[in-house]
Amino acid sequence: MSTVLWESSQRIARRVWKPLAVKLVLTATLLFLMLDLLFPVKTAVSYSTLITARDGTILHAFLSRDDKWRMYAELPEITPTLRDAILFKEDKYFRYHIGFNPVAMVRAAGRNLLSGRRTSGASTITMQTVRLLHPRQRTYGSKLIELFQAIQLELHYSKDEILQLYLNLVPYGSNIEGLKSASLLYFGKPPKLLSLAELTTLTIIPNRPSSLRLEVNNALIIEERNRWLARFRASKLFDETAIADALDEPLTAYRRAAPQLAPHLSGRLRSENPSVPIIQASISPAMQATTEQLVRNYVNRTRAYNIHNAAVLIVDNRTQEVVAYVGSSDFGNAFDGGQVDGVRAVRSPGSALKPLLYGLAFDAGLTTPKTKLNDVPTNFGGYEPDNYDRKFNGPVTAEFALANSLNIPAVALLNELGTPTLVSSLRKAGFTTIRKQAKDLGLSTILGGCGVTLEEMTRLYAGFANGGVMGELRFTGNDSPTRRNTKLLSQEASYLITNTLTQITRPDLPNNFDNSYHLPRIAWKTGTSYGRRDAWSIGYNQRYTIGVWVGNFSGVGAAELSGANTATPLLFQLFNTLDYNSPKGWFSKPGNSLSTRLICPETGDVPGEFCTSHVTDYFIMGVSRYRRCQHQKAVFTNAAGTLSYCAHCKPDSGAIRRSYPNLSPDVIAFYQSKHIPFEKVPPHNPNCERVFGSTALKSAGPQIISLNDGSEYFINPKQPADLELSCQAPNDVQTVFWYLNDKLYRKSSPTEAVFFRPRPGSLKISCADDKGRYSDLRVIIRNE
């Protein structure tokens, strides 16, 4: 009977308790999930920002926002040896529990109750991670919260992620947290390169960070390390040979400075990616270190000339990756503005924009390399540019003008092309300051009258190296290689620019370069801004484009500062050191659109009637203009060659057809001012009524180039100054007549400068030549 009753009671108990147990489990689960939803565990951590090179080498490390060295270790950096050592020491059953170890907790509670004090703990790695994330006072209530949050971590993260978080937070004394921070700052290497002895050392310190202080208590640390290595040996955790080597290994740990390479780029990337713990830059660590050293050494020499800084940017032309970025010669030099980023500082480009202008002119069909441009004094509506050496060369080829950086041909070419075309191309190329200045830019833009950065200029020249296509520079390894490209020039125009900038018979070579420098095979262009404040030299070959700026961030000029003698030597050093005898070959002529043709060397145009010699020149098929040479013109004269005839006064017999130079008035004026002989057209037949009759009025009259029509001129009545009158006239003009308010003022030769003392009021100025042709203008004179 008793047996039956017992079995019956058991069945009743199972019916009652089984549903109750299920309900309790379900209720506890729902409660946990609700609390988990209401109070999620927060794992956001403020990490130190690490800037790494393309090969993973750490270039620069920054403190976290709370001033800690807390570096983020990625999962691949947690090697099996590190994982086994830390789990053996801290939590052998880490892979099996759900955040807490009940057996260890019961054992620890028993020991603590028997001893009356806390003799051992039962914290798992998960619970320790919670404590590191959210430090609390050591109470039973805190323990319960840690237990709950440990289960939360196990619910939301994998075991490897929890271990990674733990290793990123463990303390090592002072402001160093995380195994990776300790590895780099004390051993100078990443965790994956640590030896077993070094790993064991970093494993034992977090439990006693105040007493086991690296560099301070190394002897005590070795003793504790060897004790744990003996435990590893006893448990056969690692190979006997590895243990023996680890026991014999000395401890040479000491506090090292954090890596500080590429400080300007690193600061830039950190500000652009504030929440990313590891940013992979495109920098090549070897090239960066070499470039920094070359810049530092070079500026140390130029300081004797009051030149205190330099910046360099190096771009890989194939990928558009920035492989070296030096913003200043010494980041730590506050006196000379070392923390200013010269790569992004807005400066005047001097003549460094001229290659783009010539490329645009090639593509517009305005010129070819051997087209003649006039390098003579010229007035462009009141703007009178001068050359850097204050000399003039007369008619020169376009390639000569570009290679020698002549100012007047460049301004004349821009005047023909149109300033809006150049500005539009610069805006298209991403020149941000020019975008802001666009409405105020004029002809002086091509001589440096605008603001650019070294980054923009280097990117522009990298576009020349890539056939006129500009790509977005890539500063990090995460930047997409297929970003938006901008076609600025044709391949043909880019090749013509490169061909011209490769010439070495030019004035912007460094002084005595052949004695001090080995000239690399590059295409390059220099620039010197007004007041000698900025020196530029930017060069490229097939592999790299290197931009160099030298000057003072304060804006103070220096007498010795120039693109040729200050920036170019550093450019040559960089190419010779980083890419000596580049194996990539040289640029080849593109396609069939770029061809050659015979031209007259006098003008660069297709040979005409009077062209006796021919040379070869490049031209872009279907683009370059086809114009017959007219450097000579046919003129009928008398037999003695003392009079010339036009078609209306040519006699029926006795006239002889001769050829004379067909020079423009500005070239004639230049030749006359420099006493350069040239063959002049004889004076016109004085009996010609067509030329000297009443109908010969303003047509083809002398051009007044000073003063400027419609302008206002202010004079000081107490110290009056003379104003200059000058004109340009055809080469058959011998005499001009100046009139002020229709009254004859002076007679002079066409090239002679005439001065007068102005008076307040409206003034009409007229200039007539000895053929009766004239021109006039009006100005207003005011007192200051």
Automatic annotation (TrEMBL):
Pathway: Cell wall biogenesis; peptidoglycan biosynthesis. It catalyses: [GlcNAc-(1->4)-Mur2Ac(oyl-L-Ala-gamma-D-Glu-L-Lys-D-Ala-D-Ala)](n)-di-trans,octa-cis-undecaprenyl diphosphate + beta-D-GlcNAc-(1->4)-Mur2Ac(oyl-L-Ala-gamma-D-Glu-L-Lys-D-Ala-D-Ala)-di-trans,octa-cis-undecaprenyl diphosphate = [GlcNAc-(1->4)-Mur2Ac(oyl-L-Ala-gamma-D-Glu-L-Lys-D-Ala-D-Ala)](n+1)-di-trans,octa-cis-undecaprenyl diphosphate + di-trans,octa-cis-undecaprenyl diphosphate + H(+). In the C-terminal section; belongs to the transpeptidase family. This is peptidoglycan glycosyltransferase. Keywords: Carboxypeptidase, Glycosyltransferase, Hydrolase, Membrane, Multifunctional enzyme, Protease, Transferase, Transmembrane, Transmembrane helix. The keyword Plastid does not apply. It is an enzyme of class 2 (transferase). Residues 702-775 form the Ig-like domain. The chain crosses the membrane at residues 20-39. It comes from Spirosoma liriopis. Pfam families: BiPBP_C, Transgly, Transpeptidase. It comes from the Bacteria. Residues 304-335 form the PLD phosphodiesterase domain. Signal peptide: none annotated. Its EC number is 2.4.99.28. InterPro entries: Beta-lactam/transpept-like, Glyco_trans_51, Glycosyltr_51/Transpeptidase, Ig-like_dom, Lysozyme-like_dom_sf, PBP_1c, PBP_C, PBP_transglycosylase.
